[in-house]
Design goal:
By secondary structure, the chain is of the alpha/beta class. It is built from 16 helices and 14 strands. The protein has an 8-stranded parallel sheet. The protein has a two-stranded parallel ribbon with strand order 1-2. It has a two-stranded antiparallel sheet with strand order 3-4. Bound molecules: D-xylose and nickel (II) ion (NI) (2 copies). The site of one nickel (II) ion (NI) has 5 residues, from loops.
Length: 469
Amino acid sequence: MGCVFRLTNGPKCPGTVAPTQHPSLQPIRYRMSKAAFPDVSQIKFEGPKSDNPLAFQYYNAEEVIEGKTMKDHLRFSTVYWHTMCGSGADMFGSPTAVRPWDDGLSGMDQARARVPVFFEFCEKLGTPFYAFHDRDIAPHGASLKESNAWLDEIVKLLKQGQDSTGLKLLWGTAQLFVHPRFMHGAATSCNADVFAFAAAQVKKAMEVTHELGGEGYTFWGGREGYSTLWNTDMKRELDHLAKFLHMAVDYKKEIGFKGQFYIEPKPKEPTKHQYDSDAAACLNFLREYGLLEHFKLNLETNHATLAGHTMQHEMEVAGAAGALGSMDANTGDLLLGWDTDQFPTDLYMTTQCMLSMLKYGGLKTGGVNFDAKVRRESFEPIDLFYAHIGGMDAFARGLKIAAAIRADGKLDGFLKQRYSSWDSGIGAEIEAGKAGFKELEAYMLEKGEANANVSGRQEFLENLINRYI
Ligand code: XLS
Ligand code: NI
Ligand code: NI
């Protein structure tokens, strides 16, 4: 069959792209056939010399780095929401994405049709994990009962897909932000009934995550925050949020779900202030309400930058607290002030992330989860492959560079040297708790002046890092 998809706006068929020599710019003909991506076969590692845009240049799943395969270090994951539900619509324009498998379908028919497409995509790409929200995989029903029944039906299909492909669920979550009932938040709503609805929805989402063998469950407070403090009792809302999470911890035990709970920090959007604003705020909240032992953090690059931090900063904050859980891998655009969820390609960023990851002993139950979407202008199905391949290669490269930096030891050696005044003498005494203000005063009165400072050598270190990149 020829080109069968239709768009409400824009060209009828992307097969009109001008042909050029480079394969990435060749026109691609989409057919409705058994395969959703008939022109794409298994994406393979071909090495840095390969000119094939549908191959990995750096991600070599079985290659061993620091005693572990790349596959096990990175635990790549594809998200259902952006990959299957992303339409390219934005505040100013209607959908642009060409998705032949969605053609003419809606509701549950569309939900059913998307499942095999997703598994075909993940299998061809080779990400071992995936993640979803309840309402990405199945639509909202007219009642909670209907939503649950629809969810169950799709979960059965996901189970079959997992069994036949070996794809595993990194984490599940509940979508508590799209439906109008969540306009004031979910667990932090001023409306107690909405809190109850959210609890029922999370209960169900936890059950299906458990049923699918999910390795984790994420809480991202879509609208847990405020737009104005004039109408907000912040303390009461935070108490409710903590209650909600304690209920989730209890229910987790009750059903025997062993997966890891994550909180995903984000400072703003959709609300002007989200309570889980950054890693430090989340850790403080969890500690204050006695929840810290039950949660780790799922950090997202674009959320870090919205909070005015680098992703490395967030990883260091979480890692130092023993709460480095998982990563939502994407990137923002520093010239745009919102959550653009672009695919990560910056090698400095991936190197920094991988340095922190290796330093804190790896991701354990977490993974590198591409919470990222193709640009509105990248509307063809094939762009989904280019985007993920690029992200996977960027992280694979970051991992190799980070391992090289660690093996060389120069950066580490510099750090050790920089803090060496703490290894013996007065520094060691302070660290060991053997000296207080009085002892330190006596020490300085006798010595008269502190030892001279040494340069921080930032530029020297930046040059050093560039040698590995
Ligand atoms: C939105 C969040 C969301 C979470 C899951 O900004 O990143 O996608 O990862 O609810
Ligand atoms: Ni995310
Ligand atoms: Ni996000």
